[in-house]
From TrEMBL:
SUPFAM superfamilies: NAD(P)-binding Rossmann-fold domains
Keyword Oxidoreductase: yes
Protein name: SDR family oxidoreductase
Oxidoreductase keyword on record: yes
Record-stated family: Belongs to the short-chain dehydrogenases/reductases (SDR) family.
Keywords, sorted A to Z: Oxidoreductase
Short name of one Pfam family: adh_short
Domain spans labelled Ketoreductase: 8-192
Length: 247
């Protein structure tokens, strides 16, 4: 069996909860060095301390992905402390659902800033190092909503379609540098994602529906691990999964 995770230096944005946190634990247990980024620094520092106490390698770096300099600092810290960056998992995201007619324009801006520009800043921070290394792996998190558009989710869907477009362009452009590119598109997973829906009627309806079908974050963490663990001459481009009960 391939062991292509042990010793890799892996940067994860949005590592303070949900999918990012679960993936950090999973990859650390597989022997990777984890560089955790998020705004809730108390959470990522506690997670880093827990991993280090378990003889894993981890460090926490306060990071707001809407700030390009902070994302650069996150990836640069990985290189400064551990000598290289093998994987960047652009995972930070938010989903404040609401129909367009409610004009939650500030939330549209935030989704574009975090879900699209945050991913682009992660790519911008990683590319120079990975080009110099002539190796690397950029994993971007899209969604089932990167494949369909549902009413009430228009802007979120647009951001997740954009993530897939960016990943596909990156995949083609990064060939000369031996950089792998993966998009992972999860369906409904139990995390804190629904906590940030500001429209209470929509939040309640979404929670009611999602609570009946959602799965745990383990499948996502294993999907990330699978893509990384494949041999370096294998590029896992897309993984789409959903709960069996999700339409
Ligand atoms: P959570 O709300 O549990 O986690 C979101 C993470 O994003 C947190 O760690 C949060 O950290 C981080 N984040 C949000 N804004 C910023 C910011 N400005 N700068 C840095 N980090 C930020 O949700 P999930 O784990 O579910 O979400 C992870 C990804 O998975 C998202 O991209 C989401 O769209 C995607 N996804 C989730 C699905 C699901 O059903 N859960 C389905 C499909 C896709 P902090 O607040 O500390 O900064």
């Amino acid at each position: 069996m391939t062991d292509n995770i042990t010793g890799k230096v892996i940067v994860i944005t949005g590592a303070s909860s949900g999918l990012g946190e679960a993936t950090a634990r999973h990859l650390a247990a597989e022997g990777a060095t984890i560089v955790l980024g998020a705004r809730r620094v108390d959470r990522i520092e506690a997670l880093a301390a827990e991993l280090v106490a378990a003889d894993r390698k981890a460090v926490a770096v306060a990071t707001d992905v809407t700030d390009r300099a902070q994302v650069k600092n996150l990836v640069d810290t990985a290189v400064q402390q551990f000598g290289r960056v093998d994987v960047v998992l652009n995972n930070a995201g938010l989903m404040p659902l609401a129909p367009l007619e409610r004009l939650k324009v500030d939330e549209w801006d935030r989704m574009i800033d975090v879900n699209i520009k945050g991913v682009l800043y992660g790519i911008a921070a990683a590319l120079p190092h990975m080009q110099a290394q002539q190796s690397g792996h950029i994993i971007n998190v899209s969604s089932v909503y990167g494949h369909v558009v549902d009413p009430g989710a228009t802007v979120y869907c647009a951001t997740k379609h954009a993530v897939r477009a960016i990943s596909e362009g990156l995949r083609k452009e990064a060939k000369p540098y031996n950089i792998r590119t993966t998009t992972i598109s999860p369906g409904a997973v139990s995390t804190e994602l629904l906590e940030h829906i500001s429209e209470k009627d929509i939040q309640e309806g979404t929670k009611d529906f999602v609570s009946k079908i959602a799965i745990g974050p383990g499948t996502f963490a294993r999907a990330v691990a699978f893509a990384i663990n494949e041999p370096d001459d294998v590029d896992i481009n897309e993984i789409l999964f959903r709960p069996t009960l999700q339409p």
